[in-house]
Amino acid sequence: MKLTGPVKIVGCGLIGTSIGLRLRENGIELALDDSFSANLRLARDLLGVSEDAENPRVILIAVPPQDVLKVLKDQFAIHPDATFIEVGGIKSELIVQVEQFSELAPQFIAVHPMAGREKSGPESARADLFESRAWIISRTSKSSPEVVESARLLGRLLGSTIYEMDGQSHDEAIATISHLPQILSTALGASLLESDNESLNLAGQGLRDVSRLADSDSSLWGALLLGNREHVLPKLDEVINRLSKLRSDLDSSDLVAIQDFLIAGREGRAKIPGKHGGKNRDYSYVPIVIDDKPGGLANIFNECAAIGVNVEDLFMEHSPGQEVGLITLALSESDAISLQKHLVAKGWLAHAPRKQ
Questions:
Q1: What pLDDT was estimated at residue 237?
Q2: Which residue in 44, 185, 276, 311 has a CA-CA distance of 20 to 30 Å to 76?
Q3: pLDDT-above-90 percentage for the chain
Q4: What local confidence, expressed as pLDDT, does residue 123 receive?
Q5: pLDDT at residue 324, as a whole number
Q6: Which domain holds residue 312?
């Protein structure tokens, strides 16, 4: 089966427009709607939609969480025979609300694409935003099999990995893997307000990495955190307790306890799965010194393709004015060994694989 249109996207922000870009690539007719006229105009131009398709078969709701129910009711009144797919970040309360509408509930399904960027709006949209990301489906007790299958088809078309869970389980999981990281990144960002510019000029990549999410949309995230407070508060308490204990251990110079805090963090991070939700891989890293010339990175990937090795990740370091740069490739242990030997034989400055 294939997803068939027309599809009407209500909410032309990052998520809605990104989905629209992929649908457009696949030749699916689109209709667009957004209460913010600037977003609607930009999305129309990006998607090449001058005239909206009529009689949409699928209505995609991609609006802020506080607006979802009203938009659903309004769209159902206009298109009572359509399938309704909502793509917001919290589910349990919404599903309870939708189930009170006996005619709408069978035609409704909630999904959550675990993808995004710290920059919002259609200007940040990407057709590949959902590639290899989780696509979580949460059905109502009345969702029809056809509607559930439509949500699966959409997720597959976007290149996502499909998961299914009830609304409560979804919201509890999201508190851990999404909402808590946002809170901690924002707290770190806020802690920099009193820092002087001279000190911040010394910042390395670590500070930028950890504070990246602090640049997110405050209106959206305020609604998400408040809407999921039942599950966020226990997670927040756990972190506060860990930090309070660390403060006490630092105050008492308890080196063993401080090291235990750091070890627990490393062990917890190791549980995060690898690509496509699979088991985390124990990668080997191949450092390669290359000349600062156009095409160097592309040539490395050509060599990888020539011997059939799969690069899982890469890191680049280059200082201004330096004539060479350092490319570090992450691969499986066997691929790393093969690639390093191949590159050395070809005259590259590839160093022995190492673990991190």
A1: 97
A2: 44
A3: 73
A4: 92
A5: 67
A6: 284-350
How many whole angstroms separate alpha carbon 156 and alpha carbon 22? 11
Tens digit of pLDDT for each residue in 25-73?
Answer: 999 999 999 999 999 999 999 999 888 878 999 999 999 999 999 999 9
Instruction: Please tell me whether residues 156 and 11 are part of one structural domain.
Output: yes
Do 149 and 192 lie in one domain? The reply is no
Residue 125 neighbours by CB under 8 Å, 6+ apart: 14, 17, 18, 20, 21, 43, 46
User: Which residues in the chain land under pLDDT 70?
Assistant: 274-281, 318-324, 356
Half-sphere exposure of 270 (CA within 13 A, CB side): 9
User: Does the residue 137 lie in any domain?
Assistant: yes
Helix axes 333-345, 296-307, angle to 10 degrees: 120
Retrieve residue 279's tokens. 């088991």
Contact 172, 144 (CB under 8 A): no
For the chain, the residue count is 356
- In this structure, the number of other CB atoms found within 10 A of the CB of residue 198 comes to 7
Instruction: Identify the sign of the CA torsion 126, 42, 155, 73.
Output: positive
CA distance 72 to 151: 16
Q: Is residue 143 part of a domain?
A: yes
Could you list the beta-strand ranges (E) of 218-350.
284-291, 313-317, 324-331, 349-350
